[in-house]
Amino acid sequence: MHPQRTFVLLAVLLALLGGGVATAQDDAPAAPAPVDGSGRVADTESDTTKEERDTPAQPGGGREERGARLTTLDEVVVEADKPLSAASSQVIRTRDFALRPHSTTQEILNNVPGLLVVQHQGGGKAVQYLIRGFDADHGTDFALFTDGIPVNLVTNGHGQGYADINYLIPETVDNLQLFKGPYFVELGDFSLAGALKITTKDEFKQNFALAEGGSFDTQRYVLGGSVPLDWAKTLISAEVYNSNGPFENPQNYWRYNVFSKMTMAPTADQKLQFLGSVYDGDWDGSGQLPSRVVGNGPGQINRFGSLDPTEGGKTDRENLSIIYSYKPTADETWSAQLWGSRYHLRLWSDFTFFQNSGLRFYTNPGSNQVIDRCAGQGINCPLDPSGGIATSQFVPGDGIEQDDTRLLFGGYIQYNRFWTLNDAPWLGDLPMQTEFAIQTRRDDIDVALKRQVRRNPFFTVTSVGVGEQSVSGWWGQQVFINDWSRLEGGVRGDVYFFDVSNRLPNSQAIDPNFSCLPNADGICEGTGVTTNDDGAVLIRGNAFAGLPSPKINLVLGPWYNTEYYGNFGYGFHSNDARGVILSGVDGLAQGYGTEGGVRTRQFDRLEAAAALWYVHVDSELVFSGDGGVVDADFDGNNFVAGPASNRFGFDFETRYQFTDWLFADYDLTWADPTLANGDAIPLAPTLVMNGGLTADVTTGPLSGLGAALRYRYLGSRPANEDRTLTAQGWALLDLLLRYRWRNVEASLAFLNLTDTDWREAQFAETTCVNQGVNRKGQPFDYVGQANCPSSGARPNISLVNTMPIEAPGIDGVSFTPGNPFGVRGGIQVFF
Amino acid sequence: MAAGALHGETGGYRVPVSAFVSAILHVALLLALAASSIELTHPPDQRIIPLTIRAPAPPAPPGPITGAAVVGPLEPVGPREPVKPQPVPEPVVQPKPDRAKIAAKPKPSIAVAKAKPTAATAPPAAPVADRAHPASDTAAASAGGGVAGGVVGGRPGGRRGVGGDDLFTLDQVAVAPKLIDKVVPVYPALARARGQEGAVQVRAIINRSGGVEDDSVRIVASQPPFDSPAIDAVKRWHYSPGKDESGNAVRVLLTVSVRFQLR
User: pLDDT, tens digit, for every residue of B232-246?
Assistant: First the structure.
């Protein structure tokens, strides 16, 4: 990273940090103001205390010592549901998921109604988000924020919108705010399907140390605490996590997290928050296995085996953020945020094995190894008679390396005012709330796609520097028409600047994979120096894109604690800058959505919501199994800008309280996703359910005992456009028990109670598998099937062994296996 | 990875206009931060309305019989007074029920209270507990001698309030009133719709049967949209009566906090 730039960013942040501390210290002694939203209440109490003392003292005096006792007040809390703009929106507080299994952020996200997240390729990679009929991949249409910091990364080395939330420590989460649909004026890029805003706690009520461990060599340690300060709330937490997973090739995932936060109120009407976090992750992946090679048959491998055990990754992310809010009057609020992050990812993957590159090594009668550029390409290509360069010490294939190093920073400033429009025609005085904001973000990215074998890169396909800048502004207006109707409208505008500069030289060193190329006549030619024509892509240029996104919401009610919602809005996702420059696709892909819904709360026990919705996307990002890494597909994850799509669907969610200790919840999302031509949207989820029973005993002999039984369901869905391949669904059951005794809490979790064999992540891929040995040289005796004929004996360079391959490749579902039954136990001590 | 080559040697990459736009925005943001943190003192939007309980009528001049401590109606002898009172004969004259007393009284202040249910419309300095305390009537009536709140036939050193209308505070009763029937205040629709939260403090007098004296309910810490729902609800609350050490129900002055929050 450019040292000067890094320095400037840090300097600005540190200066602000210093300034903030100074301000707080200056103010603190003069006005030891209470912190946070409870500030005003605390003021009230202290004033009242004073008054209590003064007043009765008038007649008699001599009561000072007793007066204090008067201040212990009975407090009655009146609760109402937060105002929501759509039936499908929700606020999920920690108390709602405190009991459910969550030792990873992935487990927290699985408790969000209508959202399922799945992992492929091992621990440290971002999860895939399934929501509302979208397989949003790593976040293409699902926006995530932690304390206002955007998690999604534009033009990411692995996938557009890649949202890796592993930097979050589960224990620090305070609440999750879920938004479904593009109806919310403050949400822009990646929020077509929805968004999730995660807010962390300002402080821990008690310091704690936690240790847990269990199946698959899993261990996790967390420390959390708050330093008691008069003038600030503080929170510091650190986490170490390690797991090998159920794989034969240990996952060896290590995750280190440190998170700190300080919140203060320099004056009663101001709030200032500083936040910093550091994350580092490192893992080995076992990859996705073509389902045809998995089984107990002859030559098949175990579902937890691996064809290319050299997959894996390394990543880190550091965040700094300052949030400031100021409430000059009861009806006005200013808020602003400035954040900056440093991010790094190196990811080694191998999705198709020998499909795109073929197996290059071939034994000719003279036992020299020559390179067959045409293997797996379906071209009858004569071999280089000279014998070529036959002594390379690796087995090439489709392995890729994706690199991403970036600095990103941004912020917003927002003004919000409540006011009344007097004497509006027919409506009289109209209370309103108006909001204006501008928002900006810049990513300076070094991103590259390389081909690799055993993590050794041997050819660079693209390497670019990208400057991606967005400037957004919005105006939001709420009109409180009367006690039972509220209209929200607004429009946001987003402008994106893409600037891509090539970093590849004009020629690269010799690459055996490209030294023999079929020319127009199908004749091999060319050996020696590889030019970039052999598959490298030089990208340079700049582009600009902008879109307005109008949104409108109507909320009616409540009547009998029931509210009705109607929503409509435009939204978008941005496209990868490399694709924008190279293929000229629009920088921003627009879509719109609409929804009608109802939300109710009855008998103070039942809460339910239902919504019917529709989403149209102008250009769906479609999974393309054989897109290949050298096509115009730079995310390497085979999602390419495709045709328009439509989705209809239905959401339902409910919570019920049986007794003061037993709760139930159940959520369902059904969707009918289709491409405009009637084809299926590959992998788009059609039926998702989650739910469970939760017990939390706070009185009686079992006081301190908690239990949760959780259920997750994903229906089978088409894996390709013509619905000939199916991604198998699954249903999972987890049980968590917890017992708290004084300041010690013990927990025990049984995950995947029924020991279901399930495919966590799935793709339709055309793969070509070699036979005889896997990438680490471990024996692998998968026998090719009839439609994938062996093309003869080919020696492996290092093992000199027979190594038939499948050619051409075979279409099928590749999958990452989900964890089998596992146990996890933990002890948390509070102090 | 060609690290350190963000603005690459390949030369195709220049700082675009957008970088300057971004810089300007960030600077504006910083300035806004800096500027607004200068304005440090703004009145909190919550007004505190001081409660002034009317000064009691002066105690009757010490007569030949009375030797009781001079205390106002709000200053009865505390329950934790170390010297136990002498055995007190049961009051000869039973006090009239509160209701009767209130009914007998002209009620201008009730009307005022109803006309101005929210403290927001009341001048902040207005005495909140301006209603003439029933005890002072008693005091006035017994101006000939004795102690305010005393009982006809009572003895020096006896305890006041037992049979009268005197008001006890929480630390003066042996048994505090307990809320048994709570009417939950209504969350005001507009406040909820705009996401407003807050808390108010309400002072009320619990009568000897546990009811809330209708016109005793006052806001002592106000937050405008929440004041009237809080008053309306508290008026309908019912308590178990507060009791003094002898187990007699007494009138008790209470302050409760009503917090409105969104979940």
Answer: 999 898 888 888 888
